[in-house]
Design brief:
Layout: E1 7-12, H1 15-25, E2 29-34, E3 39-43, E4 51-56
Parallel strand pairs: 1-4
Antiparallel strand pairs: 2-3, 3-4
Protein name: VOC family protein
InterPro entries: Glyas_Bleomycin-R_OHBP_Dase
Length: about 60
């Protein structure tokens, strides 16, 4: 089985603006949004391949 990274997260200061950039400018497909924990996930290599998670800085699991 090859080694690869399935998911990575970025802390962002403005989730709405960052979501719009990744969706509209970078053209990534949204995977899902969790409104109760301000975070948005995008597919980066097609569905079920690789994801990017955008976490609102104050809600990051590393905060």
């Amino acid at each position: 089985m090859p080694d690869f990274l399935f998911e990575t997260h970025f802390d962002v200061g403005n989730l709405e603006q960052s979501t719009a950039i990744y969706r509209d400018v970078v053209s990534l497909e949204p995977a899902y949004v969790l409104s109760e924990r301000p975070v948005a996930f995008f597919w980066t290599g097609g569905r079920r391949n690789t994801m990017i998670g955008l976490w609102l800085r104050t809600s990051s699991p590393n905060a």
